[in-house]
Every structure is written in C-alpha cells, then in structure tokens.
Design goal:
By secondary structure, the chain is α/β, with parallel strands linked by helices. The protein contains eleven helices and twelve strands. Bound molecules: 2'-monophosphoadenosine-5'-diphosphate.
Length: 268
C-alpha cells in the first residue's frame, strides 16, 4: 500500500491523518497515512529513511518546513517563492518539494468564504515562516495594497522588499499598520501561545474579515478581539484542509471535495 506521513514535532495532535483518510475514502484511493515524530536536527535522516523504504509522500509541519526545503531535490516555483516546503512527493528517483499553504489560504478565502479581494486592502500580521509562504499568493489576488506588519519592523520590510515585483506590498512595524483593511490575516505565532494581538481602532473597514492561520482554541483570542471590533472572524481550519487537498492532488492526481471534510472537522 502507498505510504504517506506527516512529519512534525509535536505531531500527535495533527489532524492531517484524519483529513487524508477522509480524502482517500471519498476518492476511492487506497493509501496508508501515519504520523512521524522527528527530533529537531534529525529531519534529513528521518525523511531519507522514509523515502528509501518506499514512502510516497509527506506533509511537513512545524518546525521542519525549512529543513524540508533543503531536503527536497527539486522544488516547485511556489516552494522556491515561499522558501519553505510543506509537502514532499516521491518522483522517479527524486523527492519533489512543494508548498501548498498559500494556495490553501487563498482557496479558503476566495472559494469557501467567498471573498473578492481584488482592489481591496489586505493586512498580513507577522513576517516569519507562516507569513512568508502566503505573500505571493495574496498578491496574485490583485489587492489595492498588501501591508505586512511585524513586531520586528525590519523583518516586515525585508519580506515586502523580496516580493515588490509581485504587486503592491509594503512592510511596517506594528505601530504603523494603518487602518481600513478589508482583510486582516494573523500569521504570527501568538496564537500558538494563547496570546492576543493588539488591534488598533480603525483597523477594520466595514464588513472586514479577520482570519487566523491557526485553528480551534488557539485562534480564539485574536478572533474574539476582531469580532469585538466589528469584523467577521474565521480560523484557519479551512486553510488546513485546503492545503491538504492540494497535497493530495500532488500525490494522487485526484482533487478531493473539501467542504464536507471541513464541516465534519468543525462538528467534531
Ligand atoms: P512561524 O513559522 O510560525 O511564522 P516564526 O518564524 O518564529 O514562526 O515567526 C513568528 C512570528 O510571530 C514573527 O512574525 C514574530 O514577530 P518577530 O519577527 O518580531 O519575532 C511574531 N510574534 C511572535 N510573538 C509575537 C508577539 N507577542 N507579538 C507580536 N508578534 C509576535
């Protein structure tokens, strides 16, 4: 049976095995999907072992997305752009690295939430690994402006500079975010520690959406504040399922239906 894994640390709470089991059932594909806990510094050895033993593909989560980028022998354009890999696939003697996070976010925003973002103002908070992978896909939506705001201003400026040829993007500190945004995406790691970002008055335009790339209880502090400020609030569960669907497509060339899976996970 074709074998797949999600590699991370921690990985015990990853929803990926459940998501891919649902995809496999729905598409009639036969595969095995497990969790692989790897110690920091041991990624390359573990991944090499998995693929040498016939493994077909892996999802890669924190903190190994840059290790996976380096491990991949070939990379897709969007993985190169992101500087990180969240999906590995065995291909005729080599391992291909892809990054499906940005596509997953954009699909959740535009298809599942039905947002039209062309000509709109988007704020991306954070300039770490999670933010880096979604800058180009957000610019592909042709916003009027994408502001990247980060606690360490220099990181935001560097990130914006890197993508300046891809669309209107600027990098600022958290004290200079401005306001009137139609979409605010939280890509900081504050959610994973249950902290909340300060949301200045006027941040949201009327009818704005606040989106946290984390999901479940972790996203609550940010989303509660955003709701109190009048925004529609959404966690990143849809993004998680959509990035998984992109990975599934890369591996199996079948595009699973995601709406039912998102609804089932939310109900659980
Ligand atoms: P990830 O891969 O999850 O993005 P990371 O690369 O460590 O992790 O980046 C964490 C992001 O969250 C950074 O943008 C970080 O800001 P700094 O670059 O200034 O460190 C941001 N972050 C973490 N804690 C924060 C806090 N308490 N307030 C605001 N931003 C925070």
């Amino acid at each position: 049976m074709d074998r797949y894994v999600v590699i991370g640390n921690p990985v015990a709470h990853s929803l990926s095995p459940e998501i891919h089991a649902r995809f496999a059932l729905a598409t009639g594909e036969t595969l095995a999907y497990d969790r692989l806990l790897v110690e920091p510094g041991d990624f390359a050895r573990a991944a090499r072992g998995f693929f040498a033993a016939g493994g077909r593909g892996a999802n890669v989560t924190l903190p190994f997305k840059v290790d996976a980028f380096e491990f991949a022998q070939e990379r897709t354009a969007r993985a190169e752009q992101a500087g990180a890999v969240n999906t590995l696939a065995a291909r005729a003697g080599i391992v291909l690295g892809d990054n499906t996070d940005g596509a997953g976010l954009v699909r959740d925003l535009t298809v599942n939430l039905g947002l039209g973002l062309g000509g709109k103002r988007i704020l991306l908070v954070g300039a770490g690994g999670a933010a880096r992978g979604v800058v180009a896909p957000l610019l592909d939506l042709s916003p009027a402006m994408l502001v990247v705001a980060n606690r360490t201003r220099e990181r935001a400026r560097e990130l914006a500079l890197r993508f300046r040829d891809a669309g209107p993007v600027e990098g600022v500190g958290l004290d200079a975010m401005g306001g009137g945004f139609d979409l605010v995406v939280n890509a900081t790691s504050t959610s994973t520690r249950g902290e909340a970002l300060a949301l200045p008055r006027g941040l949201f335009a009327p009818g704005a959406t606040a989106y946290d790339m984390a999901y479940g209880p972790a996203a609550r502090p940010f989303l509660e504040r955003a709701r109190a400020a009048g925004a529609n609030a959404c966690d990143g569960l849809g993004m998680l399922v959509e990035q998984a669907a992109e990975a599934f497509f890369l591996w199996r060339e079948r595009r699973p239906d995601t709406a039912g899976v998102i609804a089932a996970l939310r109900a659980a």
